[in-house]
Amino acid sequence: MSNDQKFQQNVQDYLEGRATPEQFLQLNEQLRSDPAARRAFREMLNLDSALMETTKEIPRETVEAEAAYHEESCPRTELEPQQQQVSASTIAKSGNRAWGSLILLIAASLLVVVGMLTWFAESPEFAIVEYAAGAQGLSAGMTLGAESHFIQTGTVQLVTRRGTRIVIEAPALFYFESAQRLQLKHGRLAADVPLEAHGFTVITPTGQAIDLGTKFGVDMPEAGEAEIHVFQGEVVAQSIEGGNLQNLRDSQAFRLQSAVGTPSSFRSGAFIQPGEVDSLSAALQAGQPKRSQLALQELRDDPNLIALLDFEDGQKQPGKYRSVQGRWPGSQAAEFVNVGDHMKLDVGGERLWSQLTLAAWVRLDHLGEPYHSLLHTDGWEDTKKGQVHWMVTRLTTMRLALRDNKLAPDERPNEGFPDSQTSVLPEQGRWVHLAAVYDADKKTVRFYFNGQFDSESRLSQAFPARLGPAQIGNWNTNDRTLSGRIDEMLILGRTMSDAEMEHLFAAGNPYR
Amino acid sequence: MWRASDMLMSETSRNARFVSEFACHEEAIRAYVRRLIPSRSDCDDILQEVAMVLWEKFDEFHEGGNFRSWAFGFARYKVLSWIRDNGRSRLVLDSDVVALIADESVEEDSYLEMQRLAFRSCFEKLPSHQRSLMANAYRPDMKIQEVAAESGRSTAGFYQWLYRMRQMLLECVQRQLASEANP
């Protein structure tokens, strides 16, 4: 017996509880010293565990029919992947249960024939990849069968045989049970289901969503509960363990908890939509990430840089928020979902800054809260003239408020603060670049959307800006939830020109 | 910021949140324990103990955190204490070897999960009588001699059959994952 065979036999005997002390000795030695052996051992034990799980679901049956069984009736080729639809064998299994041993006997005699038919059958193709933006292992034109897919990075757009368009964002683990049933173990997807595909179902570990003619999204975090968001139309949501069916309509969201679910706040912008993936993919092909990296490097060398948060250095900023994919495949961004989610920041020290540029890539999930905090320094005190609050308001404008600053008398009042003229709304659901440039000497605040100058507010009283302890996505004394993601926040102790701002946007833009 | 409503919410939904988290990761936690413990029945017993500890400590788990790696930490501890306590009366692997496999299991968690998913479709491709025969062999209340007899084989022959079936399934899983990695 070769060493390898001996090892295999030892592992098998170990699995059956039949290994002798000598075999244990050999196993210990080999596992201790040989990483490949440990890997093989882990894989075999993992398989054993999967067998434990799966075989639990199979009811006890007598195997009298096994007299007709010969090992040769199960050629290895039967186990080739993608030869048989999972649903077909599931039906066969329940059929056996219903008809009993007579059917089993007949089935056993037919097995050889069935095996051959299976071998010649066409592979089931449930969906095809339309676009793949940085999703390793998946590329445009690939067909997907019943096999599982894990995407660590990127975004992929699929279309099923019945025309359902699905966008799945990494990290995600999923597989099709059929063209109408998709298992999403974790990840985030948006689906656009045409009439012909009504009934398309997304199944998650905490429940399922059944389409009734719809555009909807499913967010299944690696830990936690799935959320269903209906953009348009109607969906039935059901939690695991016999939870009641819940009908959801336009702009409703539901969290699938065990047995009972709870309504949740609607976050349409949290999902990459069909139609967005091609422009993400085009930007990748055009080398945008590299341009962005170079632009960031220039900023890091800027002597006036106060802070540049790109979330890529592996150091997690303190606070309560989710780490999600940023603008580039595999990059990181901070996501704020629940009331009170926040990121803490303490930059700028005690110093007063007569010039300040604030800029960030933002993906807003929805608007409508009184304030969405981009950056709020702690407190709002008389003694801290010039302290900075940067936000999106209920009027969907961008606001940069500094303590005790005053608008010039002829400015539009806007609740007394400098606000942008343009609404943030038109770009909802995509990454947008928001920026404000403050100059205390010139007494101006200038706003920019996607690199373009929007408007300037003039001030009659302008204190130098004061930073220090602050929160992104919230404020310490009030909930000013930013519902959405932030990627690459820049705080610069000087003003940026229009041309610089345009360059900053163009270099960091994830779309083409 | 502390809010009374948060407090109330956490009191009333603790049970549901735990059940949901645990259900979501039970299979992965069982597989983790299985990789470290020689017998299936001991694995199930330890899993129950792990579930109890997780339930007791659930207040220390931060929402939004990674439940699975949190659970693996407790499972690792439970397994190593079990190995320590049973090392004299039972045949077990040395604890340094178990610790090595435990650590590497965590690093490989995603891949191992993919293997279990791929396994499902491989297993479904087996003829139903082979599936039920394997199920019987894995039933905790069944004696392997009886399963072997039912299948019309000697016990030794049945062990050999199990050996070959596992090898075949593992190869199927590896082929499937390889074909996914290299389209």
From TrEMBL, chain A:
Domain named LamG-like jellyroll fold: residues: 354-499
An example molecular function term from Gene Ontology annotations: sigma factor antagonist activity
Entry keyword annotation includes Disulfide bond: yes
Top-level division of the source organism's lineage: Bacteria
Record's keyword terms, sorted: Disulfide bond, Membrane, Signal, Transmembrane, Transmembrane helix
Gene3D superfamilies tied to this protein: 2.60.120.1440, 2.60.120.200
A family per Pfam: FecR
Transmembrane segments: 102-121
Name this protein carries in UniProt: FecR protein
Organism of derivation: Bremerella volcania
